[in-house]
Amino acid sequence: MQITFIARKLNISGGGSNFSLDLMARSLAERGNDVTIVTVKSNMNDLPPEPPYRVVESGSPVPRTRIGELKRVYHLMREHSHMTDIFHVFAPAYLAPAGYLRSTTDSPPTVGRLNNYGLFCTNTTKMDGECHLNCGTGSKFAHDSVPLTRKITKIPLYATQTHLEARYAKKLDRYFAISPSIKSMYSDIGLEEQKIEVVPNFYDPGFPSGGEAASLWNSNMPQVLYVGRLIG
Predict the structure, then answer these.
(1) Cα separation of 219 and 81, whole Å?
(2) What is the sign, positive or negative, of the torsion defined by CA atoms of 217, 218, 224, 230?
(3) pTM of the shown model
(4) Residue 148 to residue 152: CA distance in whole angstroms
(5) Cα 91 versus chain centre, distance
(6) Strands 86-89 and 196-198, how do they pair?
(7) What is the Cα–Cα distance from 38 to 131, expressed in whole angstroms?
(8) Calpha distance 173→154 (Å, rounded)
């Protein structure tokens, strides 16, 4: 099967979703699939050495605005449609152009990964478990942390996110959410719940564990485990 990922970047030194993307693509390739990762902002890439999949770097000019980035996604997906059996859109911010392509052309089946709230939220520190239910243009304006003059220039973007992007993001065939809470929030804002599967972030099976991991630490030193979010 020919599987094409659409991602903002692949930067293995950046951690987080970059590792998940690499591990997923690597695992699928090792199972005999023909895997390609198309990166939209290729200037941010830090690629792994000799991966078992292809990486397509979209080149210059690098999109400087969200609208420019979404246009780049749409054209890249059209360009690769004829050589793809299934698209995997690896960023919620890219669901809208993928959904528009899926609903207006005979493009391949498309799944989207829900690993953040970027489709509807301008400031996750303001999230209270309820605001996503009424996250309109005004809320996006009020919650964004950029300076007031910048927020004023972004009003058309807030409106586009609220009305157009949300509409077309619902057009994909399936979605993978990295947690039940993300699944719940996205179903609350209109994605069909039965289309969303919870698939957590991946871990590298080669990472030290158990006694092997313990041997990496000096047992005479205090050890602290923290799981959570740091907000300055």
Answers:
(1) 54
(2) negative
(3) 0.84
(4) 6
(5) 2
(6) unpaired
(7) 33
(8) 30
Chain-centroid distance of CA 205 in Å reads: 22
66-80 vs 95-104: helix crossing angle, rounded to 10: 40
CA dist 158 → 71, 97, 105, 115, 207 (Å): 17, 16, 27, 20, 41
Q: Whole-angstrom Cα distance, residue 33 to residue 49?
A: 19
Residues sharing a CB contact under 8 Å with residue 153, sequence separation 6 or more, in sequence order: none
CA nearest neighbour of 84 among 39, 34, 20: 34
Per-residue tens of pLDDT for the chain, all 232 residues: 999 999 999 998 877 889 889 999 999 999 999 999 999 999 999 999 999 999 999 877 878 888 889 999 999 999 999 999 999 999 899 999 999 999 999 999 999 999 988 888 888 888 887 888 888 898 889 899 999 999 999 898 888 888 888 889 999 999 999 999 999 999 998 899 999 999 888 776 666 555 555 555 556 667 777 777 666 5
Length of the chain: 232
Q: With contact defined as beta carbons under 8 Å apart, do 86 and 1 qualify?
A: yes
Half-sphere CA count of 103, side-chain side, radius 13 A: 12
Pair of tokens at residue 72? 């780049």
- Which residues does residue 88 pair with via DSSP β-bridges, in sequence order? 5, 111
Structure token digits, residue 201: 């972030």
**Dihedral over Cα of 149, 115, 120, 226: its sign:** negative
**Residue bearing tokens 């039940």:** 180
The residue type found at 23 is: L
Beta bridge partners of 37: 5, 55
